[in-house]
Amino acid sequence: LRNSVAPDAGLVQLATRPGRAHRAMHRWTGIAVLLAGLALGLTAWRVHGSAGAFELEAQKTKEEWRTLAAQIDPRSTEPGAGDALLFLQDELATRQAQFTPVQTIPPIMQELEAVAQVLQDPWTFELRKIQLNPTLPMVQVQVPDIGTYETVLEVLGTVGGSTITDWRGDMAMRGGGVEATFRGRWPDTEGQP
Predict the structure, then answer these.
(1) How many Å apart are CA 5 and CA 30, to the nearest integer?
(2) 79-91 average pLDDT score
(3) Is the pTM of this model over 0.70?
(4) Half-sphere exposure of 106 (CA within 13 A, CB side)
(5) What string of DSSP letters covers 98-153?
(6) What is the pLDDT of residue 193?
(7) Of 58, 63, 118, 189, which is the most buried if we count CB atoms within 10 A?
(8) Average model confidence (pLDDT) across the chain
(9) CA distance 47 to 61
(10) Which residues pair with 13 in a beta bridge?
(11) What is the largest CA-CA distance in the chain?
(12) 3-state secondary structure (DSSP) of residue 47
């Protein structure tokens, strides 16, 4: 046991223990941590105080908006009207239900030009009637024979620039010729040809 403990070990421990300078360093470190904590607490208190002021400003702005919304539509202040998006969607649906959808008007002038291309070809026929209304387009001509009637019917169905489909024809023998009536259908109408 004597050999395990050196006689000068106690003096080394006394020389390395904390002294006055070491204690002063700990004291100043503690004071610095305390001052930093106080500064942080003061900053937090100021932020908390300014947050209260911002909260009051936000509440004031909300009240102004509620007053304006009540002037525009009194229903906006009713209970359950807090979700503005749902409120606006309901209002939009109500207003859309009040309007009937706009029906598109067929391109009548374009069709008149297309039918005029067919009628300008050198056939001997007499134009009786052209009716290109939005419901049922119709062309009525007097042709010399059945062959010309079939040619006109075929050309009406294939003329370029035309949107009228499903041309059908009726014919009647009158005065040495054929009175032909051709009826078509607009692409989005369901009327009878």
Answers:
(1) 37
(2) 72
(3) no
(4) 22
(5) HSPPPPPPP-HHHHHHHHHHHHTSS---EEEEEEE-SS-EEEEEEESSHHHHHHHH
(6) 39
(7) 118
(8) 80
(9) 21
(10) none
(11) 152
(12) helix
Give the whole-angstrom CA distance, residue 5 versus residue 11: 12
Q: How many CB atoms lie within 10 A of CB 44?
A: 10
Closest CA to 162 of 104, 103, 116: 116
pLDDT band at 4 (very low <50, low <70, confident <90, very high): low
Q: How far is CA 179 from CA 90, 120, 121, 146, 165, in A?
A: 58, 18, 18, 10, 21
CB neighbours of 179 closer than 8 A, spacing ≥ 6?
128, 140, 141, 142, 171, 172, 173
Q: How distant, in Å, are the alpha carbons of 21, 28, 147 from that of 17?
A: 11, 19, 128
CA 46, distance to chain mean position in Å, is 45
CB 167 within 8 A of CB 151: no
Q: Once rounded to an integer, what is the mean pLDDT over residues 13-24?
A: 75
Q: Which sign, positive or negative, has the C-alpha torsion 90, 91, 95, 98?
A: positive
Using a 10 angstrom Cβ sphere, with 0-12 exposed, 13-18 middle and 19 or more buried, the burial of residue 29 is: exposed
Q: How far is CA 158 from CA 36, 117, 162, in A?
A: 91, 11, 8
What does the alpha-carbon distance between residue 192 and residue 183 come to, in Å, rounded to a whole number? 9
The Cα–Cα gap between 144 and 170 comes to 15
Cα–Cα distance measured from residue 83 to residue 166, given in angstroms and rounded to the nearest whole number: 53
Look up residue 106 and give its two tokens.
């067929």
